[in-house]
Write a structure and sequence with these properties.
This protein is α/β, with parallel strands linked by helices. It is 39% helix and 13% strand. Bound molecules: glutamine (GLN).
Amino acid sequence: MNHSKLSVKEFLEKSKTGEIDLKGFFEKLYEKIQELNRKYNFFITISDFRDERTENGKIKGLPVSVKDNICVKGMRCTAGSRILETYVPVFDATVIKRIRNEGGIITGKTNQDEFGFGTFSTNSGFDVPKNPLDPERTCGGSSGGAAGLTAALNYPHIALGQSTGGSISCPASFCGVVGLTPTYGLVSRYGLIDYANSLDKIGPIGKSVEDVSILLSVISGKDKKDATCAGEKKDYFANLSSEAKGMRIGVPKEYFGEGVDERISETVWNGIKKLESIGVEYEEIELPSTKYALPAYYIIATAEASTNLAKFCGMRYGAEEKIEGSFDEYFSKVRTKYFGEEAKRRILLGTYARMAGYRDKYYLKALQVRTVVIQEFKKAFKKYDALIAPTMPVIAPKFKEIEKMNPLDVYMMDILTVAPNLAGIPMLSVPCGKIKGMPAVMHILGYHFDEQKILNIGLVFEKEVKT
Ligand code: GLN
């Protein structure tokens, strides 16, 4: 059987009826993953998943790769950082437990920017992942390995990514695959190595809207171990529908403005027009606080990150050095040696923003901006079922272009993703065209816990009006 043609749904059906030789399938998949990894560095750690069996001896089902900041029992978990190079968790994150309960197996831990700090995965402490559509270009970040693998691997497979300010949407966009960032709180964060707790979301990256709905149905829903997890468990896959007639879409003008490649704007507009041709109504709207979202995001995210990183002190997890000198000296020695440049920059930025004297001026101001951003989205969703915009302002840049960027240029790449992430609303990236062979992707934003609506719009687009 040619596995490469199977969707996840077909794979699940056929593996239940015994039509697939699972042992042979997993052998081939394992080889393929090794081969791809030698070329593209999608994984930090590959697991030997070839012969995982259930209690009654049956070979297990769907292969899922996991971003390396989510804990999997017994599997090294680095979060892309050398400081965690030797950390092996003794427990499964809630999402992993749920995947295992459904018979899923974990193929390995995918590459990422160190602790999620970045947009191109070039801040990984390990070999940088390359875009399978053009290896001179980035996969995006920070879930770069997850999206690159999804684009390159012609086997039924889903990737688990994670976003703080765009890390699912961005790599999905640069690699031309589907990425779903769920509402903040719909998916448990228990077992996630935090970047910024008030922003972090775990979500699926797959080849199709169907694939991401399948994984979302498995991982979502309340968890006693995460008090911020409030969402109800639903079967998004069973409820997928391509009925979009009469839906109302808002198109925020600010998302097509300065800094956004005109060819991307045009491609996304073509997509919106196609939706219109099948009965979706649209209107241009304004979200004036958009321009304040980027500075607010970088203050909030770095403030939270700088406190989260305090626990990596060379004593409890990961890297250790010979213990000598005072605690401060030891702590500084380990962190100087093992943290990358961007992690150090974020610690400095975040600590500064939280310092007495600057707190009101920066951190509290940023929180106020966040409230305004949320209110603007709330108002828009009173009138519209979803908003549509481009996901990233550019196509995947080449590594040699990235080398010329300063940190601020890199932060600017997040102008379209940070506001919805600050608001904690769900967002779906769906490819809508190509520019010079590289994908341009449309971002469908929904109201809190309205995942089903944006998945349905994504499905319509994918099935009926794909360019
Ligand atoms: N690029 C953004 C940042 O560096 C978002 C990354 C993320 O979502 N982890 O913070």
